[in-house]
Design brief:
Layout lengths: L5 E9 L6 H9 L6 E2 L12 E2 L13 H4 L4 H17 L11 E6 L5 H14 L8 H5 L3 H10 L5 E4 L5 H14 L5 E8 L4 H9 L29 E9 H6 L6 E10 L12 H14 L8 E3 L6 H15 L8 E2 L2 H4 L6 H15 L1 E2 L22 E2 L4 E8 L3 E9 L3
Parallel strand pairs: 4-5, 4-6, 9-10, 9-13
Antiparallel strand pairs: 1-7, 1-8, 2-3, 6-7, 8-14, 11-12, 13-14
Helix pairs in contact: 3-6, 7-13, 10-11
Amino acid sequence: MSKKQIVVTGLSALTPLGVDLQTSWERLLKGESGIGPMTRFDVQEHATKISGEVKGFDPEKYMPVKQTRRMELFAQFAVAGAKMLLENARWEIPADLAHRTAVIIGCGIGGLDALERSQTLMLSGGPRKVSPFFIPSLIANMASGQVSIFTGAKGNNVVTTSACASGLHAIGTAYSELLLGRADVAICGGTEASLTPLALAGFNALRALSTRNDDPLTASRPFENNRDGFVMGEGCGLLLLETLEHAKARGATILAEVVGYGASSDAYHITAPHEDGEGMALAMRAALDEAGIPPEELDHINAHGTSTKLNDITETRAIKTVFGKHASSIPITANKSMIGHLLGAAGGVESVFSVMTLHHGVIPGTINMVEPDPECDLDYVTDGSRKAQVRYVLCNSFGFGGTNATIMFKRWEG
């Protein structure tokens, strides 16, 4: 049986670099950082006082004001992202194909801010102070649910929640649904908006975050010797996937093809990857195998690259395990150096940037690499954006619980 071809026909992004794809992409290529002082709440008592906030987002551009009051920011991002996505793809969901259009979006945490606000209200005023919209706004699947409501998509409506791999698992799941013939089109990717006092305190308690508060622009430094943790960010990155048959029938502009997906588990620890990177390597190998290409044909890796001591070394080891001698010839980039770690949205946004790399022939650089970690000795594209004819790119996402995901995109040559 020949495998269906699944293509990317639309993209959207809201990131700490901008409230739209073009602004985010242009600033990424310029090597600008979206990290700055936290403004959402008082951080005086927190060890970390910086983050990657989405600035200038106006939800009322995308939905009625009444709806914004019933929706947490992560869901607002998803709805706005979906509307921009369909505009980018030049497509409206027709009524007769609504049941063949899936919405599969990753979200690692959901409406944590709603939980914190409601807990405070209940403690101060009792149970009657809790809003009837509390639970519907809190649950992570409102990202996909609200997108379905606003776009009219009636196919599979599901959220993937797998920590920092959520967004990439959503894309992989959507790809699988289309391969299996369960849908013709899928809105997929990741969204997250968890910049809250409790989240900041929790990640600080794990000693996972950077405390380079005096210099936010250089705080996120993947693969760098003096890195001291990741920087929390927020945002949304979505892709429109279609079967090639459906895309051609409607005359869509094809941006890239999805050719491989791999997922695995470390089966090791709740927060730490196995030091040899076995689980990460398994996911990358699976994506390569499904794509049917040898390791030496890979042109670029968009790394998970969190800027934590454990992840960066482990991911480097895994890349060496999978690609052998070719590893040193692969340009690797870490978008998180400029946008921070978007948690459940990371894989969505980074997949969007990976497709942009294929489509435009330029690899974004990795900033803040002042002194490379001796154990991180690959080509991390630290000399600014690099023009390159990339044919295949791997995008990695790894999460707490030992969950790993890798997806491979191919430049469209049809």
